[in-house]
From TrEMBL:
The keyword Signal applies. It comes from Bradyrhizobium japonicum. This is Quercetin dioxygenase-like cupin family protein. Residues 55-120 form the Cupin type-2 domain. SUPFAM superfamilies: RmlC-like cupins. The keyword Signal applies. It comes from the Bacteria. Coiled coil: none annotated. PANTHER family: CUPIN DOMAIN PROTEIN (AFU_ORTHOLOGUE AFUA_3G13620). Keywords: Signal. InterPro entries: Cupin_2, RmlC-like_jellyroll, RmlC_Cupin_sf. Residues 1-29 form the signal peptide.
Length: 137
């Protein structure tokens, strides 16, 4: 068997992952110093809902502006110190091992307030037919 079909399959799979990433988060929504890595996406037993897990890395001093999600977000800080500004609550700084729940549609923002890159594992339980992230002005 020729290695070309396998190589073609790998290229197509990579292209599909890239296209999903580009469609999930508009380029304008991702500032310099923010890296989002899609880890997994699965349909749920609830019709029209899906679970999405993303690793978000923030360079020192970088902020992700105010935004919402079409469902719940569950955050687990992996490394560093991140300040979360959740509408209706005082800002809170979380460190590695801390977790935060953000209700559906709640406006929030995040900023790396440490000296090193900070990382979080974000798990979203969201509507499938809506953008994962909407910026708020």
């Amino acid at each position: 068997m020729s290695p070309y079909p396998l190589r073609t399959l790998r290229v197509l799979a990579s292209a599909a992952v890239l296209a999903t990433n580009l469609l999930t988060l508009p380029a304008a929504a991702q500032p310099a110093g923010v890296t989002r890595t899609d880890l997994q996406r699965h349909d749920l037993s609830a019709p029209g809902r899906e679970a999405v897990q993303v690793r978000v890395d923030l360079a020192p001093g970088v902020a992700f502006s105010r935004h919402t999600h079409p469902g719940e977000e569950i955050i687990y800080v992996l490394t560093g110190a991140i300040e979360y500004d959740v509408e209706g609550k005082p800002p809170v700084t979380l460190k590695a091992g801390d977790a935060l729940f953000i209700p559906a549609g709640t406006v929030h923002a995040a900023k790396n307030v440490g000296q090193d890159t900070a990382s979080e594992l974000a798990t979203y339980i969201v509507a499938k037919d809506k953008p994962l992230l909407t910026l708020v002005k």
